[in-house]
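SAMPLE LOG
Freezer: B-3
Tube label: C17
Construct: single chain, 124 aa
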Amino acid sequence: MSDPTAELTTFMTRYEQATNTHDIDRVTPLIDADAVYWFSDGSHRGLGEITGAIERTFAAIQDEVYEIRDLEWVVLAADHAVCRYRFSWTGVVDGRPRSGQGRGTNVLVKREGGWRMRHEHLSP
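STRUCTURE (predicted):
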């Protein structure tokens, strides 16, 4: 098997860019239908719950810029991968500039020839 690092890193860049559009229709095609996301506000299971959580974040943080950095691939296989990284965000909440940062862990799976997010865990 060839090293899928470049392909997976490109996927994570696309995920970051889609998030920064604040257009849920650009984000959801990158998420597996049975995914589970763990955010600081709780756990979200399945595309419907995850979409709702992301849309609430988009509504709460105006002009948000989300950044993934220090990306490391912990597991690399032909049909699944695990990465960890640091993230940061800046934006406007209730009319005031705000920012935050934390750590992320993601599990990706290959479905129908493309990578999808199967699990995301973000923590401060």
